[in-house]
Amino acid sequence: MKQKFCSLRGMRDILPGESALWQQLEGVAREVFGRFGFEEIRTPIVEETALFERGVGEDTEVVGKEMYQFLDKGGRDISLRPEGTASAARAYIEHAVHQKEPVSKWFYTGPMFRYERMKTGRYRQFHQLGAEVFGIAEPKQDAELIELAFAFLKKLGIENVRLELNSLGDADCRRRFSEKTRAYFSTHRHVLTEELQKTLERNPIRLLDSKEEVMAPLIAAAPVLLEHLDEASLEHFEELQRLLRLSAVEFTLNPRLVRGLDYYARTAFEIVADDALLGTASTLCGGGRYDGLLEQLGGPCVPAVGFAMGLERLCLLLGANTQPEPRGPLLFLADAGGGDEAWKLLSRLRKGGLAVEADLRGGSVKSQLKRAHKLGAQYCIVLGEAELQTGRAKLKDMRSSTEREIALEELEGILR
After folding, report:
1. What value, to the nearest 5°, has the Cα angle with vertex 46 and ends 43 and 48?
2. pLDDT of 300-343, one tens digit each?
3. Whole-angstrom Cα distance, residue 78 to residue 76?
């Protein structure tokens, strides 16, 4: 009995047809991000596990439970990347980019990996589009990133989205608030699960991000970080809000928004979609400032801010509201006895830079024309003995179903 292979749970294939939608989305990203001055970076999908332990946070759920972690043949502890910021920061440090450029604006797209419970638009191999800026501490940079995210979504035609905003303060501020939060939740220790009690000891602020039902009333009455910001963080946050108002970007303050990764400080934000297609997985974009991350990874003291978007969720919304641009060939060449001459014409047109397709199985003209329709060809020409003898053939417009007779020697020029 032959073994039937299937993709692993949480992994999926993106077949032609759907991949056209992904290419459309990525093309829009490159256009919009380029307009804002961002350049693309590509990093490996595998990194040392320690990079994520130090960067993302050893006590976070991502590092503690969700990473694909293993020893390679050299005995090194490595992991498939669960997110893109730590890898971008590692590349920035490794290549001493700060010594070459005072400001770096990067974007990336690619697969990430987390062994987590799947939900709408989220898989164990998923794809993110991210933006990172190194070298600017001012709130104007936070505002520009948020404007970039909105410009991208608008270009895609994705509407009914809202911005939620919070500030996490600086490291000292978070440390003081962490102790206050630990003291508060300690009085409710008896209702916390064993796992929540571990979080209470390791990183109590993470409890504010809990989705456990028992936590909802406790979180509602918990201390609010915005009420405990230091003066510099408060000024930064107020200036960010002022800039967003100047740009007519609407937002809502969400004092419970803490994000799931440890490197965030000061600004934290999410862009949420109100669309039934996404169910409870409604966050399209999440990001914020992480000024201390580079130093934490052994690099220079350089401020940084960024965001990431899940492409699967964007494709869900994009596919429901738009149709991918037609991707069929310019011409379909149907061979009705043209033989070697048909093959030579196909080769010559392709070498001339034209997108031309043919059914190399041959078959009846009728079956070949069906194939042309299925491929979405814009034009079709039938080449047989009669066409070769007269040097003329009928060029058919497949979309308007009209045709005209042309000289074969003029075909390439007409197609151009």
Report:
1. 110
2. 999 999 999 999 999 888 875 555 555 789 999 999 998 899 99
3. 6
Q: Which residues contact 346 (CB under 8 A, 6 or more apart)?
A: 333, 356, 358
Q: Which of the pair, 57 or 394, is modelled with greater confidence?
A: 394
Query: What's the confidence (pLDDT) of residue 93?
Result: 97
* Torsion from C-alpha of 283, 285, 289, 295, nearest 10 degrees: 100
Determine contact, residues 94/28, Cβ cutoff 8 Å.
no
152, 134 in Cβ contact below 8 A?
no
Of 258, 308, 269, whose CA–CA distance to 163 is shortest?
A: 269
Torsion (CA) 374, 378, 384, 386 in degrees, nearest 10: 140
Tallying the residues shown for the chain, one arrives at 416
Strand ranges across the sheet with 46-48: 46-48, 77-80, 69-71
Closest CA to 374 of 354, 396, 357: 357
The pLDDT of residue 193: 87
Q: What is the mean pLDDT of the chain?
A: 89
**How many CB atoms within 10 Å of residue 1?**
3
